[in-house]
Design brief:
This protein is α+β, with helices and mostly antiparallel strands and 252 residues long. Strand 7 and strand 8 form a beta hairpin. The protein is elongated, with a radius of gyration of 20 Å. Keywords: DNA-binding, Transcription, Transcription regulation.
Length: 252
């Protein structure tokens, strides 16, 4: 594979294939290989143009092709994102955590922390959090329970460059968002939340007191600060027999 001067590996100027076509293919390979997972936010057009060593017009032609193919989508004021492979209706709702929702409703819960440690995240998580592969992040694994039993299994991945020392926090009683905002002074502003349904694997089934293969609700979320930096990624599995997710929809 050749390296174009000022550009990325694979971009060649001495072949008949147009540069914008090569860029489109390069991005397709990144998406197909999982380097850019669903919901990954691309760099800005000027940054990408510089990275590829091309003009913004050439880059825009490549992005337009991928948008028309459905691989990318642009959100006004937010940027360009890799699309999901599933249909995702927009859901308008308050950005809150399960613990905050339970507290608002007067529901008593307990939290069991199964893991709170620094790890090198999987490549898709590193991409969504916009950290270099191998950079350590916090992995926080918890089970949330009510008097009925366990209702949710939560895996949270948190950028420790924005919250150094967070692995020392006792999350049996502390709220993750509360710590990020109260202790570290971070302003959580938005999140992209995706819902799905899955058959419970062995670990999920054991954690939620279910039979393996039982249906569970699955929630995936990327949380952003006011300056648009991603701060947290989470996977959440919910016991659908004990907890229902309700959304307030507003018609514009």
């Amino acid at each position: 594979m050749t390296v174009d001067k000022g550009g990325l590996p694979g971009i060649k100027r001495d072949v008949p294939t147009a540069i914008h076509v090569q860029i489109s293919e390069h991005i397709r390979l990144r998406i197909a290989g999982g380097e850019w997972p669903p919901h990954y936010r691309l760099k800005s057009e000027p940054e990408l143009a510089q990275e590829f060593g091309v003009s913004r017009g050439t880059l825009r032609r490549a992005l337009t092709t991928l948008i028309e193919e459905g691989l990318l989508r642009q959100v006004r004021g937010r940027g360009t994102f890799v699309t999901s492979t599933t249909i995702e209706p927009a859901i308008a709702q308050k950005l809150s955590t399960l613990s905050e929702d339970f507290a608002d409703q007067g529901v008593v819960t307990t939290t069991t922390v199964r893991e709170c440690a620094l790890i090198a995240p999987p490549k898709p998580v590193a991409a969504l959090l916009d950290v270099a592969p191998g950079t350590h992040v916090l992995r926080l694994v918890r089970v949330r329970s009510t008097e009925q039993g366990p209702v949710a299994l939560l895996f949270n991945f948190v950028r420790t460059d924005l919250a150094p020392g967070i692995e020392e926090v006792d999350f049996t009683s502390a709220s993750l968002f509360g710590v990020l905002e109260g202790t570290y002074g971070l302003k959580i502003a938005t999140a992209r939340r995706t819902f799905g349904a899955e058959a419970a694997g062995a670990d999920v089934a054991d954690s939620l007191d279910l039979a393996e293969g039982a249906p569970v609700q699955y929630l995936q979320q990327v949380t952003y600060l006011a300056d648009d930096r991603p701060v947290e990624y989470s996977d959440v599995w919910i016991h659908s027999g004990r907890l229902r997710v309700t959304s307030l929809l507003l018609r514009r």
